[in-house]
Design a protein that fits this description.
- The chain folds into three domains: about 160 residues, Ubiquitin-like (UB roll); about 350 residues, Creatine Kinase, Chain A, domain 2; about 120 residues, Up-down Bundle (Four Helix Bundle (Hemerythrin (Met), subunit A)).
- It contains 23 helices and 17 strands.
- The strands form three sheets. Strands 9, 10, 11, 12, 13, 14, 15, 16 and 17 form a nine-stranded mixed sheet that branches. Strands 1, 2, 5, 6, 7 and 8 form a six-stranded mixed sheet that branches. A two-stranded antiparallel sheet has the order 3-4.
- The chain is α+β, with helices and mostly antiparallel strands and about 700 residues long.
- It is globular, with a radius of gyration of 28 Å.
- The longest helix is centred in the last third of the chain and has 50 residues.
- About 5% of the residues have low confidence.
- About 45% of the residues are buried.
């Protein structure tokens, strides 16, 4: 039994507002909270007092070092640890941490992705404290480190991280959402916050088996392997009883996360064997992005303690479900109202809900390419469109009722009767809206789920910064469009209901191209989407190029989220990551074939040949001879394919970035798949004792 209840350990490793209030003088704390809320800048005198309090608190939690914890463009986090321990002029030890050290630090920027904005010899980069996300302490054995969430930028001030664009996008949407609320007469609302809850899918395999698979160690996914006889076809793993070892691991993960202020609301088995999911409680968007990074790190460390390897790759096993990070998002005002929660009794709130809904539809209609680009990654290309992952074409599912409502508003609002459980807009000519009135469409990339939207396309290992930056940017643009039209209607003398309905009608008509209620997996939808003019990008390089379309560059630049230079740099960073990942896959597969598959095949050929030599000569013409001939052809084909792979890798390495990426898609991917097929054929035809790598059936079965 646990010594503490979850509520007793919750947040004990977080320098939270409650901790600040107890350790910082009231007047200083008020200035700090004003800075956190964006009402004023933090001056150095305040920073010094905060730093002293933060240091003493961290020391009390066992911290010996501090670090400016930031999100470079690797989808991971980065940290440079600095010791609190110092010596004075007389050589006596003291623990120091100044306001200047809290506000800013200088890690090396030369070896982190910059998209060509920084050369290797231009090493200077800075991290700066983000006070809107609380500092926290992470333990490691006998020691611990104070982590200070930070932004990361180059010597000339150019952002090099995922957090800075996200903070800008959050600011853009919150400012515009507040303006729209004021137009609806909400004078008492002081602020609007974007809120996020990201469902995290993952696989667990036994560490001792994972260490015998170079592809799992270096690529995070299997590059070869046959499906087990029993995989997920019985549908008995989903929501099944959690394996005792896994449950013990999950419980420790949850305890560690609770201490860091992260509440895991649900845990369960997912569809694939060995696949699971955590869903945290909603939180403010910037904090949610930080907490998701913390969560993935804690999950990795805790899994190792329990003898597991955590796999966050989007498609670790061919033929089994992939892993996503279903990103649920909404907006909340200072009075505690969810702006995507339709009102059951208030006319103005109902129209307001439809206005915010319409704003997102407008943004998705015009900037759907940005949604596709923001979830483009080397691994997500293998996941999208298969086994419960949404397809690569971005569309929005509202449910039959809401979709019909928008169509009816667009066409002139016929009379509707009242239906129990529906949301009454207070207008006889409008139907009522039910808050939960349709089945869920699991094939839709973006779906309205009653009081929030769910973006199902992000991959499991992705930083939330990229998808959220895109989502909030296009929604901010849509809100501004809605607010401008509403304000013009009100200034023209229209009453609020008619003014709002006119705007909603425009949003409904404009967004028809992106709304789809059917099965997004079908070929018919793919063809229909092309007729509608929706962006279709099947490969990661194709999708990344959508960052560079004029409308998407203008959107991000006009909102102040990314400059033109930053957009190009971000694109090049992502494209370079794709090429690098593909290069690693090619090298690892070639080595696995040469070091493991071909020797295993040679042993099987020797075994078959030895057996054949003891049979009458006529047997060589029979089944035994056919088997031996087949194995010989496999060996020759594999040798030839690996030689082509290695030659292709050398050729592609000489090409410019975009040409290399194109070659990876057109030539390398088919060749990798061909070699996988040959390896899988070898696996089916060699003795278990000869096969060098743990098979799927072993990886999918936990001890």
């Amino acid at each position: 039994m646990k010594d503490k209840r979850p509520s007793e350990m919750f947040g004990e490793l977080v320098f939270s507002r409650r901790v600040m209030a107890g350790r910082i003088p009231k007047d200083v704390n008020e200035k700090l909270q004003a800075a956190i809320e964006g009402r004023e800048k933090l001056d150095n005198s305040v920073a010094g007092i905060v730093a002293a309090a933060m240091k003493e608190w961290a020391l009390s939690k066992g911290a010996t070092h501090y670090t400016h914890w930031f999100h470079p463009r690797t989808d991971l986090t980065a940290e440079k640890h600095m010791a609190f321990l110092n010596v004075d002029n007389e050589g006596l030890p003291l623990e120091s941490f100044s306001g200047g050290e809290l506000i800013q630090s200088e890690p090396d920027a030369s070896s982190l992705p910059s998209g060509g904005m920084r050369s290797t010899f231009e090493a200077r980069g800075y991290t700066a404290w983000d006070p809107t996300s609380p500092a926290f302490v992470v333990g490691n054995g006998d020691g611990a480190t104070l982590c200070i969430p930070s932004v990361f930028f180059s010597y000339d001030g150019t952002p090099l991280d995922m957090k800075t664009p996200l903070l800008r996008a959050i600011n853009a949407i919150e400012e515009r959402a507040l303006r729209l609320l004021r137009l609806f007469g909400n004078r008492g609302v002081k602020w609007v916050h974007a809120t996020v809850g990201a469902e995290q899918e993952f696989f667990l395999v036994d560490e001792e088996l994972a260490r015998k698979r170079p592809d799992l160690l270096f690529c995070g996914r299997t590059l070869l392997g046959n499906l087990p006889p029993k995989g997920q076809q019985m549908e008995d793993h989903y929501f099944g009883s959690i394996h005792p070892r896994v449950l013990a691991c999950m419980e420790e993960m949850e305890d560690e996360l609770a201490r860091l202020g992260i509440v895991i609301r649900t845990r369960h088995n997912e569809v694939g064997p060995g696949q699971f999911e955590f869903a945290p409680q909603f939180s403010e968007a910037n904090l949610a992005a930080d907490q998701n990074q913390i969560m993935m790190d804690i999950m990795r460390k805790t899994a190792r303690k329990h003898g597991f390897r955590l796999l966050l790759h989007e498609k670790p096993f061919a033929g089994l479900n992939g892993s996503g990070k279903h990103t649920n998002f909404s907006l909340q005002d200072s009075e505690g109202r969810n702006l995507l929660n339709p009102s059951v009794s208030n006319q103005k709130r109902g129209l307001q809900f439809l206005a915010f809904l319409g704003a997102l539809l407008l943004g998705a209609s015009k900037h759907g390419g940005l949604l596709r680009a923001c979830i483009a990654s080397p691994g997500n290309m293998h996941r999208l469109g298969g086994n419960e992952a949404p397809p690569a074409i971005m569309s929005v599912y509202l449910g039959d009722f809401l979709n019909r409502l928008l169509e009816d508003i667009e066409e002139g609002l016929p009379e509707f009767g009242n239906v129990k459980g529906e949301i009454d807009l207070g207008l006889s000519r409008l139907p009522a809206i039910r808050s939960d009135n349709s089945d869920r469409n699991r094939t839709a990339p973006i779906a309205f789920t009653g009081n929030k939207f769910e973006f199902r396309a992000p991959g499991a290992p992705q930083s939330l910064g990229g998808p959220l930056t895109a989502l909030f940017s296009l929604w901010a643009w849509g809100i501004e469009e809605v607010a401008n039209r509403l304000e013009a209607n009100l200034n023209a003398g229209k009453e609020l209901p008619d003014a709002a309905l006119d705007v909603i009608r425009h949003a409904a008509a404009t967004s028809r191209n992106v709304r789809f209620e059917g099965n997004c997996y079908t070929q018919e939808w793919a063809e229909e989407a092309q007729r509608r003019g929706l962006p279709v990008a099947h490969s990661t390089p194709e999708a990344l190029r959508l960052f560079l379309t004029p409308e998407n560059r203008s959107l991000l630049a006009d909102l102040g989220v990314m400059s033109e230079r930053e957009i190009h740099a971000y694109y090049e960073t992502r494209l370079h990551q794709f090429n690098t990942t593909m290069n690693i896959d090619m090298g690892v597969l070639a080595s696995m074939v040469r070091e493991g598959v071909l020797p295993a095949l040679a042993k099987q050929i020797a075994l078959e040949g030895n057996a054949l030599s003891h049979l009458p000569a006529a047997a060589a013409e029979g089944p035994c001879g056919v088997v031996l001939e087949k194995l010989g052809r496999l060996k020759a084909d594999l040798h030839e394919a690996v030689q082509r792979l290695e030659a292709l890798q050398a050729d592609l390495d000489t090409l410019p970035l975009e040409e290399e990426a194109e070659g990876m898609v057109r030539k390398a991917l088919p060749l990798l798949e061909g070699i996988r097929g040959l390896c899988n054929e070898v696996e089916r035809n060699v003795a278990l004792e000869f096969w060098p790598y743990p098979r799927y059936r072993e990886l999918a079965t936990l001890k």
